[in-house]
Write a structure and sequence with these properties.
Number of helices: 13
Helix content: 55-70%
Low-confidence stretches: 138-178, 285-290
Strand content: 5-15%
Order of helices and strands: EEHHEHHEEHHHEEHHHHHH
Mean pLDDT: 76
Number of strands: 7
Radius of gyration: 25 Å
Oligomer: single chain
Largest sheet: 3 strands, antiparallel
């Protein structure tokens, strides 16, 4: 819906009560729901079934927050299903996603608006007595009830009406791991299985819940970082990866919610895998100190790269 250069989109009056929105608010404060609200507005401007293409810095500017916080909220929203099909560009600065339930909300909003217009036009055409008009309006209200935006959705934002369920959700079941593609090539099932097990180990240590794949079957951003690491260094098996995770979390350099890049990002992974594969013998304090210093420098450099990409 648009008037001149002002664009409007339908929004459930109880949107703030949906479980995903509540979780984002409880975790990130007002910025959590605001990011989803801004993404919904951007989806209307693109007007492509709830899809959005933007950058963390641009999103942060619209929400009056930092780019780092915007990235954390976007990944958290993808984890709990508030947005789907998150796909981050290789430079780590821009991303694509689809706002969950957005298209269904728009259909119901337009349907409610059409019903309201029909009732208004019908009332103007009724040249009857006041009593007859009241009776007639009551009859039409029962026949064509005004359905508020949000009817047919539970608090998670999922559409419970089969007639209004998003065709995209029906047509995009999670793909089997063997069908996953990364960098345009089909990934071998055994490599996918190892990456998923490593992601599970990371989730257990970090107390996160990152998913291995988007609803369209693509590897998630966090799984992609792991795939990149094991593709660059075939020494990274599940036991080695578990040691890398333990080493990184024994001296964390990040702030806030960690993602897999703090262990498997470029530069960080190469230093951690060396320490995991060749642990320093007990008593070699000088060498251990030099290794720790070098690793700390690499970790700090990775953090700087991440911050620049997010900006």
């Amino acid at each position: 819906m648009a008037a001149g250069r002002t664009y409007w989109w339908a929004k459930d009056a109880a949107w703030i009560d949906r479980d995903a929105i509540v979780e984002l608010g409880e975790t990130h404060g007002p910025a959590g729901p605001l990011v989803l609200d801004v993404l919904s507005g951007m989806a209307k401007l693109e007007n492509h079934a709830g899809n959005v293409f933007t950058g963390y810095r641009a999103l942060a500017r619209k929400c009056f927050i930092t780019a780092e916080l915007a990235e954390q909220i976007v990944h958290h929203a993808a984890q709990i299903g508030a947005i789907d099909d998150l796909d981050v560009d290789a430079d780590g600065r821009r991303f694509r996603c689809r706002v969950s339930g957005w298209q269904a909300d728009q259909r119901k909003g337009r349907a409610a608006d059409r019903d309201a217009v029909r009732r208004e036009r019908g009332a103007e055409a009724d040249d009857v007595t006041e009593q007859d008009a009241e009776t007639h309006a009551s009859s039409r209200t029962l026949t064509h009830p005004h359905v508020p935006v949000g009817t047919g959705q539970d608090r998670t934002g999922q559409d419970t009406s089969s007639s209004l369920r998003s065709e995209e959700d029906d047509a995009r079941p999670p793909a089997k791991p063997s069908a996953m593609k990364w960098r345009g090539k089909v990934i071998k099932p055994d490599r996918v299985a190892v990456a998923v097990e490593i992601l599970n180990a990371f989730n257990e240590t970090a107390n996160t819940g990152y998913r291995p794949a988007t609803r369209s079957g693509k590897p998630s951003h966090d799984l992609s970082r792991i795939l990149g690491a094991i593709n660059d260094d075939d020494r990274i098996t599940l036991p080695i990866a578990e040691r890398m995770i333990q080493i990184a979390f024994s001296r964390p350099f990040w702030q806030g919610r960690p993602h897999t890049g703090v262990v498997f990002g470029p530069g960080v992974a190469s230093a951690l895998v060396e320490e995991a594969v060749n642990p320093t013998p007990a008593g070699a304090t000088n060498r251990s100190s030099r290794q720790a210093t070098a690793l700390a420098g690499l970790l700090a450099n990775e953090q700087t790269i991440n911050e620049r990409q997010a900006a």
